[in-house]
Amino acid sequence: MACEPEDGQLKPLKWYKSLADKKERLEAGVFLVEGERAVRQIIDNSPDAIVEILSTGESPSFCRMYAYRRITGEQLRSITSATTPQGIVAVVRIPEGIYSNVLPDNPGSKILLLEDVQDPGNVGSLIRTAVAFGFSGIVLTEKCADPLSPKTVQSTAGTILSLWIRRTDDYLSLIQSLKTKGYSLVATDLSGEENPSFLHKADKLILALGNEASGLSADILRLADFRLKIPIKDKAESLNVAACGAICMYLGRG
Known about the structure:
CATH class of the largest domain: Alpha Beta
CATH architecture of the largest domain: 3-Layer(aba) Sandwich
Number of helices: 10
Helix content: 25-40%
Shape: elongated
Radius of gyration: 20 Å
CATH topology of the largest domain: Alpha/beta knot
CATH superfamily of the largest domain: SPOUT methyltransferase, trefoil knot domain
Number of strands: 10
Distance between the termini: 43 Å
């Protein structure tokens, strides 16, 4: 049964606010998910990950199996990173292995690789898109935005726990290991070929997207089985990495 809202049980507000910092999140083993839609999504996909729920209103029916704390709007604004808080925040357990280079036993047939994608909004949007198009996991390099930062999590719209994530500096070895298991690496490249059919022909696919300014590294391009170029008009120099990823994942949906 849910706990009744008791302000006395609330941890110090500065503790919740401190979870905006990666070090504090890792020490606590939790992160925040903001907004009713996102919290509902977490409950639907990973109900055991919820530690507690804070809300400015009465406990919503979908929250009643969790510890619930009622707080004021002012308290919520001091906790959340959102410009306009949506009235509800969930404290969620950090998934096991997210900062390791050890893959799940069954990585799935479609994996996204993000190399040095630094904008948290882009990383979050790509996580959300990957879930939408049936990708099972994402490998992030150490220079990528932290997947559990408030802006990244907000941009995932609650899909942050809907696939596995690994953020590691040993990603080249990890990709090489996957290739020995039959995965094909498709790298997005302005000098590549305009032939997206390779995306859905591969039985096991790794789709690689690079840094917003410099693209993919020479190391990843050397490992690639295919380099894919998305044709665009001359008036646009390039596509945003999140837009590029969405197009490629749609084309590779099978």
